[in-house]
Design goal:
Helix content is 47%, strand content 14%. It has a six-stranded parallel sheet, sandwiched between helices. 36% of the residues are buried. It holds the Pfam family adh_short.
């Protein structure tokens, strides 16, 4: 089965390369984005808003998140902001309750937020390892676990995960970060298989992106703000 699936995926990717799929309309959809206060998350919030989606921006940094919300409001887009430390399971529970009570059904999830500690395996602290796993991968589990049942019930939805090229190839001094990004692929593929077994593979979708950016991190500086992305 695994060999057949790999062959199928290879043919599928070859086909998509030459004949890109038609973009689905997302006007009016409610999109939740983690790490929306800066970098990739901020740019995604703008792009989804431009396409007509209602956007919920999550970020642990309330100030930067409010700035993004203000920018979207000034441009006439519908957006909401919630301060949430997605590395904390209880904060995720509280956030989910608020979202469902105030905004309704979330049809698109974008798990984007991440931290990127830099350090050799023998040097990195236990605290950094735990924080990285809590934010970069366990939050994906908790958020999907909270929102996927509603998607299954309504038979529609889309889960997006922002991984990294570090989830494809390991990088020295970034073992912790790479480990979490490799784990994202496993989670997303397994979740997609579970949905396929429910017969909902054409109703609920899973997309994983593997971006690469040149940032100060390559100069051995701890950084979580991808300044290469900015609002136009």
């Amino acid at each position: 089965y695994m060999l057949t699936r790999k062959i199928y995926i290879s043919y599928e990717r070859f086909f998509v390369f030459f004949i890109p799929p038609i973009q689905k309309p997302i006007r009016g959809e409610l999109v939740l984005i983690t790490g929306a206060g800066h970098g990739i998350g901020r740019q995604l919030a703008l792009e989804f808003a431009i396409l007509g989606a209602r956007v919920i921006c999550l970020d642990v940094n309330e100030g930067s998140n409010k700035a993004v919300i203000l920018t979207l409001h000034v441009r006439g887009y519908e957006a909401y902001g919630i301060k949430c430390n997605i590395g904390d399971r209880n904060e995720i529970r509280n956030m989910v309750k608020q979202v469902k009570a105030e905004y309704g059904f979330v049809s698109i999830i974008v798990n984007n937020a991440a931290v990127m500690p830099v350090g050799g395996l023998m040097d990195i602290t236990d605290e950094d390892i735990l924080e990285t796993f809590n934010v970069n991968i366990l939050s994906h589990f908790w958020i999907i676990k909270e929102f996927l049942p509603d998607m299954v019930e309504r038979k529609r939805g889309h889960v997006v995960a922002i991984s990294s090229m570090c989830g494809v190839s390991g990088v020295a001094d970034m073992a912790t970060y790479c480990s979490t990004k490799f784990a994202i692929r496993g989670l997303m593929e397994a979740a997609a298989e579970e949905v396929r077994m429910m017969g909902l593979e054409d109703r609920i979708f899973f997309t994983t992106a593997f971006p690469f950016m040149w940032t100060q991190v390559w100069h051995r500086t701890r950084i979580t703000d991808f300044r290469g992305c900015s609002l136009p």
